[in-house]
Amino acid sequence: MTVIAQGRDRRAVLASAMCALMVTGTALTGCGGEDPDAGTNGVGKLSAEQIQRKTRAAAESVDAVRLHGSVVTSGRTYTLDMRLKSEGGTGSVTSQGTTFRLLRVGEQLFLKADAGFWSHDGDADAAAAEKLADKYVKVPEGDPSYKKFSGFTYKDVLLDGLLTLHGEVKKDGRHERAGLRTVRITGDEGAGGSLDVSLEGEPYPLRLTRAGSAGTLGFSDWGKDFPLKEPAKGETLDYGGQLPES
Fold this sequence. Notes:
Layout: H1 2-22, H2 48-61, E1 65-73, E2 76-85, E3 88-95, E4 98-105, E5 108-112, H3 115-118, H4 123-132, E6 136-139, H5 144-150, H6 155-162, E7 169-177, E8 180-187, E9 194-198, E10 205-209, E11 216-220, E12 236-238
Parallel strand pairs: 6-12
Antiparallel strand pairs: 1-2, 1-11, 2-3, 3-4, 4-5, 5-6, 7-8, 8-9, 9-10, 10-11
Protein name: Lipoprotein
Keywords: Lipoprotein, Signal
Region (Disordered): 222-246
């Protein structure tokens, strides 16, 4: 019994010594540590630049996504909850305490809001606001509002602008979002933004913190289709010329 015990002790010491020689800063399966990439899609093993390319490719490969969170642009904060795909998008936008809905089908953009969104001083404005209230108002393509708001409804254009980290890109450890394991990459150690990428299934982006405190966004429902059609005629109003400034 003594001989067997001594043999086991020697083997244990030898195994520990071998693990100590093999460890290079990464946990190794079988050496007292769990492989952090076990059961993942493997992108955690890649460089930060490779992860960024992989997650962009994954985002571009599917047609639909839900985007929710805040974006700061031109000094104004917009809170978004949008569902987007190549044919258009639909959802809500909140800014300065006012919420309105956006719907784009093809090139047709509609905006729906209450009377407070449209109202200004004067009886004429009040009358126009009541007319426009709670209707899907068709936004003329030449109206300044079209360019301003349609940008929230174009999936590829929006993601291309958002999924950009500024400065030197590095990995920033393993994390978890919505119950999914992620690897985080950052630009300029976080000052240039950070992005959590899923380690489970496809390497979709799950959470973005924009550079310069310009908002935080979550991404979900990747590849999940949703109905998209123009509102019924009874719910729609074609204002004709340029919309009242809101």
